[in-house]
Design goal:
The protein is built from four helices and no strands. It is an all-alpha fold.
Length: about 80
């Protein structure tokens, strides 16, 4: 979860770069697609990513809590 939180600014920068590249690539002589990035766009993306990370953490934690460590340690490879 901490890693997902720390990676947010890097993800914003990469997302902005991809959006800019796509906007420039789709531009032609007939039309232009303006790049409009609002702070709400970044906050919505961050909320989705952090919620997904939180759900992932909870699922992994639940599976680890159900794991019988004694039987796992006894098994041979």
């Amino acid at each position: 979860m901490l890693l997902a939180l720390i990676a947010q600014p890097v993800g914003w920068w990469i997302g902005w770069g991809v959006a800019r590249l796509m906007s420039e690539s789709f531009t032609s002589d007939l039309y232009a697609i303006p790049l409009v990035m609002k702070p709400a766009t970044f906050s919505k993306a961050s909320i989705v990513v952090l919620l997904a990370a939180a759900v992932s953490v909870l699922v992994v934690r639940r599976k680890l809590d159900r794991l019988n460590l004694v039987s796992v340690m006894k098994t041979r490879e």
